């Protein structure tokens, strides 16, 4: 049996500039972190040649081509496994909530499958193969930031070059800054689940009309990276989140709505200093920067489910192999 553990991610700034429609005309940049919420993949050899796949549904098929789960099917085919395995996926947080779960699933499954085949892939190889499956093979209208965050882990600056190459710059924070982030970040579930594909497809279509906004967000990713490296984590981080969110929400319809805008404004009025909706938009989680003395006020004002989290250092790992 093999078990992989792959983190979910929070994208702070630059989301949307990792889409090919943008970076193919220059480059994109994102600052993100992984958190201690995970997707676990278990893989075990079956006694026969069938495939059993369990996620929110359960599939039992004789041939890999019969699988309905497009990502799982593509991963199995890429790894050269046509049958005789049982795969189960367990997630700390449901999909469609803006934390990059689809890409974490892809990275974690590839990690398990290649380990099963006797091959250990590097973080970069996992990220590239996952990106190839989701973007090139399945034609999901997404970018590359989620796959790289899940594979590498930690707080990172990623740049996305014109021809598709990705460069990672690990942001080394002090223990004080990490503790400060863990204390001051709050994350609330809006109760709205959505597919990112539709929003991202619209965003790709609107890219040529929104270049100035996307250029700003890319440049802010550079500013945030440099600020974290030279000055650390403080209230300026909240200002950057707030400014970038106000820009991002103008890119296309569907990123926000009246309910989300009202929630965000309530949080600010209750004492939060900045934040953003995580992921492509439309629902999922709201991330807030809030000093500890105002956090109870924010909780009361929003009345939403809060999810405690901490920053995570590691990317996708094999945690059990027998």
Automatic annotation (TrEMBL):
<keyword id="KW-0067">ATP-binding</keyword>
<dbReference type="InterPro" id="IPR052203">
    <property type="entry name" value="GHMP_Kinase-Related"/>
</dbReference>
<feature type="domain" description="GHMP kinase C-terminal">
    <location>
        <begin position="234"/>
        <end position="302"/>
    </location>
</feature>
<dbReference type="InterPro" id="IPR006203">
    <property type="entry name" value="GHMP_knse_ATP-bd_CS"/>
</dbReference>
<dbReference type="GO" id="GO:0042352">
    <property type="term" value="P:GDP-L-fucose salvage"/>
</dbReference>
<dbReference type="InterPro" id="IPR020568">
    <property type="entry name" value="Ribosomal_Su5_D2-typ_SF"/>
</dbReference>
<dbReference type="GO" id="GO:0005524">
    <property type="term" value="F:ATP binding"/>
</dbReference>
<dbReference type="InterPro" id="IPR036554">
    <property type="entry name" value="GHMP_kinase_C_sf"/>
</dbReference>
<comment type="similarity">
    <text>Belongs to the GHMP kinase family.</text>
</comment>
<dbReference type="Pfam" id="PF08544">
    <property type="entry name" value="GHMP_kinases_C"/>
</dbReference>
<dbReference type="InterPro" id="IPR013750">
    <property type="entry name" value="GHMP_kinase_C_dom"/>
</dbReference>
<protein>
    <submittedName>
        <fullName>GHMP kinase, N-terminal domain protein</fullName>
    </submittedName>
</protein>
<keyword id="KW-0418">Kinase</keyword>
<feature type="domain" description="GHMP kinase N-terminal">
    <location>
        <begin position="71"/>
        <end position="154"/>
    </location>
</feature>
<dbReference type="InterPro" id="IPR006204">
    <property type="entry name" value="GHMP_kinase_N_dom"/>
</dbReference>
<dbReference type="Pfam" id="PF00288">
    <property type="entry name" value="GHMP_kinases_N"/>
</dbReference>
<dbReference type="InterPro" id="IPR014606">
    <property type="entry name" value="Heptose_7-P_kinase"/>
</dbReference>
<keyword id="KW-0547">Nucleotide-binding</keyword>
<dbReference type="GO" id="GO:0050201">
    <property type="term" value="F:fucokinase activity"/>
</dbReference>
<keyword id="KW-0808">Transferase</keyword>
<dbReference type="InterPro" id="IPR001174">
    <property type="entry name" value="HddA/FKP"/>
</dbReference>
């Amino acid at each position: 049996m093999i078990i992989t553990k792959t983190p979910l991610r929070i994208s702070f700034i630059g989301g949307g500039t990792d889409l090919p429609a943008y970076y193919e005309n220059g480059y994109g940049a994102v600052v993100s972190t992984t958190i201690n919420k995970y997707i676990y993949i278990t893989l075990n050899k079956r006694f026969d040649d069938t495939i059993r796949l369990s996620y929110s549904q359960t599939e039992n098929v004789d041939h890999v081509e019969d699988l309905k789960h497009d990502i799982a099917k593509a991963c199995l085919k890429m790894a050269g496994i046509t049958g005789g395995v049982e795969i189960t996926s367990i997630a700390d947080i449901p999909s469609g909530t803006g934390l990059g779960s689809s890409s974490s699933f892809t990275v974690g499954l590839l990690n398990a499958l290649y380990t099963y085949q006797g091959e250990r892939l590097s973080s970069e190889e996992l990220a590239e193969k996952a990106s190839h499956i989701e973007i090139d093979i399945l034609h999901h209208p997404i970018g590359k930031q989620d796959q790289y965050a899940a594979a590498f882990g930690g707080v990172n600056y990623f740049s996305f070059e014109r021809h598709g190459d990705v460069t990672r710059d690990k942001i080394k924070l002090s223990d004080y800054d990490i503790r400060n982030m863990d204390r001051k970040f709050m994350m609330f579930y809006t109760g709205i689940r959505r597919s990112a594909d539709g929003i991202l497809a619209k965003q790709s279509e609107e890219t040529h009309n929104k270049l100035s906004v996307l250029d700003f967000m890319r440049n802010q990713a550079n500013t945030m990276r440099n600020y974290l490296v030279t000055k650390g984590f403080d209230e300026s981080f909240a200002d950057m989140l707030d400014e970038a969110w106000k820009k991002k929400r103008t890119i296309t319809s569907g990123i926000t709505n009246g309910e989300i805008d009202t929630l965000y404004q309530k949080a600010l009025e209750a004492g939060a200093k900045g934040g953003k909706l995580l992921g492509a938009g439309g629902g999922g989680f709201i991330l807030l920067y809030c000093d500890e003395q105002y956090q109870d006020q924010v909780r009361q004002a929003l009345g939403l489910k809060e999810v405690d989290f901490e920053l995570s250092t590691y990317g996708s790992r094999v945690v059990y192999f027998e």
